[in-house]
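We modelled the chain as a single entity of 573 amino acids. Its sequence is:
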Amino acid sequence: MSFIHPLALLGLAAAAIPALLHLLQRRTPPELDFPPLRYLSEAERESARRLKLRHLLLLILRTALIVVIVLAAARPLVRVEGGGAHEPTALVVILDNSPSSGVVVDGRPILDRLRVAAHTSLARTTAADRVWLMLADGVVRGGSRETLLASAESTTAGWQRLDLVEAVERAARLVHAEPLPGREVHVLSDLQRTALAAGRADVPDGVRVLTLAPGRAVPNRGIASARVTEGAAIVEVTGSGAATAQPVPITIRIGRDRGASAARGLAALGAAVTVPLPAQSIASGWWTGEAALEPDELRADDRRPFVWRVAPPGRVTATPGAGPFVAAALAVLRDARRVGDGRDVVIGDIPSGARSVVQPPADPALVGQANRALAARGVPWRWGETGTPGPIVAPELAIIAGVQVTRRYRIQGAGSGERGEEGVLATVNGEPWLVRAGGVVLLGSRLDTAWTALPATPGFVPFLDALVNRIVAGEADVATGEGAPRVEFRTRGTDTIGATVFGPDPRESDLTPAPATVATAAFGGKGRAEVLEDARFASERFLGTRRADFSGVLLVLALLLAAAELGVATRTR
């Protein structure tokens, strides 16, 4: 129990007044032995006992009346199971508007149901509450109730995926930091099982996590990835539900405007299909395309764009100083028609030709001569002292990431702090190992197993392919990003040097909901988290802090006590 006006409880001291008056009025009458009245003694004693009982009853009634009036003035709040107001509460409403929330179930998107639940939670708050709204972008929005209600009602299915476990943990810490009696997190999501794969949220004591139970699952198919290699589009299909077992048709559209249909194929769930492209009609340059499925209940993952560059194979020459592993890899690339003979790109230990891939000389005595040759070409990098062994770190070259380097030179120069196409492309122990400047690519190690394990890995030939066909020319690989399906090109001047393809996270296509036990465990475990159906979710909101004003009941009780006191006092007289 709590009180709206706790200072009024000081009036309870007045409850002692009736007792004090009772004690002050008590007196012992003198006793006289009057024989004619002895026969009345027994009657007098019986009457005195009745008077004492009535006076005691009056004392109790008057004391209780004062106590009840003081408590009513303090306006006590009593916890109730339904209805009533609630104590000040810190609340975060997590409205998961990730792409999967746009799936249509029973004729309407799931997001409509989630928005209604969010509106109800926010509408129940008062000016004494602290309230935030979190959407799939992970941004915690504060503000007045009206502002947050408007944000929730205008929310549409987005393109970003929400990590529910991380979101619940952040929200729980936020409300726990507030010095308010109530602390709650309301999770409104379709509760995809894939969104709960990342461990368990650390929810502090005293924080309630209420989760709306997901609706029924629906089957779905979506395009997980689409790329072009060796003149064919490779499309992978993902999804969930028993109805997705049959192969589905895929339509490939290519062209800068992706106008005409170019090819079709059939793909099964969890498998990739290769669809040949009409190479004879595609000229050199950057091309975009789109892989599309027939529409289903979730439209967000039914299409995915892709981009690729059509270019003639690079003409490459390896000098004797390049080493046997480079020569063997180039032979493989020639057989695959990935490179041709020529001097467009020269691989060796001294820069030569318009474009060069340069590795350090095998003889340490020749390092100084190689550095002077680099300076003569205007390259701001040079080889310094030997560096310590370590793994390769290359965020933009996953094929060599983690490969061990046992011997290397430190690459130093004015540009040693740069990153990107004109800077550092890979590091070892935080120091540059692969850099580019102009038309020169510089390696910190020789491409030999005595220096690095790279020539013995499956990624060596693809790495050399990327070096001579893309990296030395300053072109970036095609990157992927999360967002609305589109292609964004990266340019340098008038040249296109790379592209980023955006689309939804492939995991959004798996609409399988997490069981209640899994969600409860992920959101803090029993005692902190609950997964509730709509009716119970509505009744459990603010239940731990729901209070009703009990002063009205106390005033009625005071009237009854006053009436009883008046009746007893009248009979006493």
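As a brief sanity check on the tokenised model: Residues 85-216+513-541 form a domain with the Rossmann fold fold (CATH 3.40.50.410). The chain has a mean pLDDT of 85.
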